[in-house]
Design a protein that fits this description.
There is one protein chain. By secondary structure, the protein is α/β, with parallel strands linked by helices. The chain has a single domain, classed as Rossmann fold, CATH 3.40.50. Helices cover about 35% and strands about 20% of the residues. It has 4 helices and 5 strands, in the order ββαβαβαβα. It has helices spanning about 25-35, 50-60, 80-90, 110-115, and strands at about 10-15, 15-25, 40-45, 65-70, 95. It has a 5-stranded mixed β-sheet, sandwiched between helices. Helix 2 packs across helix 3. The termini are far apart.
Length: about 120
């Protein structure tokens, strides 16, 4: 809900947590990640909440956490990767972002890449 609490909250998409728990920003991104990898995904809902959710994910997965950042390459300062890097440093999580799909790329997250006919196929998140 608009104006609702986000800090430290997340949505869980069930899956395996044996290898890692994935943490991403939005639900559509999380659904695509879970579909491709089979991993449990925690959706933080925005980049500013990645750190607190990655911290919680560390308890769920015994420290096996992978942040799946949005690549906001068309936004000044790329806040998706910037905030995910800060979260990874603070929590010890691994970090990845979606593949670049070409010069006219408008993909910014794993859901975009999942649905993009130009994006390289990704499975090794």
């Amino acid at each position: 809900l608009k104006g609702g609490r986000v800090k430290e909250c997340f949505c869980v998409i069930p899956g395996s947590d044996v290898e890692a728990v994935l943490v991403c920003e939005g639900f559509a991104t999380g659904a695509s990640l879970q579909q491709v990898t089979g991993h449990k995904v925690l959706c933080a809902m925005n980049a500013g909440n990645l750190q607190s959710v990655a911290y919680t994910a560390g308890f769920i997965s015994e420290g096996r956490v992978k942040l799946c950042a949005d690549n906001d390459h068309q936004t000044a300062g790329n806040p998706g990767i910037f905030k995910a890097r800060l979260a990874a440093r603070a929590t010890g999580a691994d970090l990845t972002w979606p593949p670049f799909c070409g010069e006219s790329c408008v993909c910014t997250d794993f859901n975009d890449a999942f649905n993009c006919s130009h994006a390289a196929k990704w499975g090794g998140v």
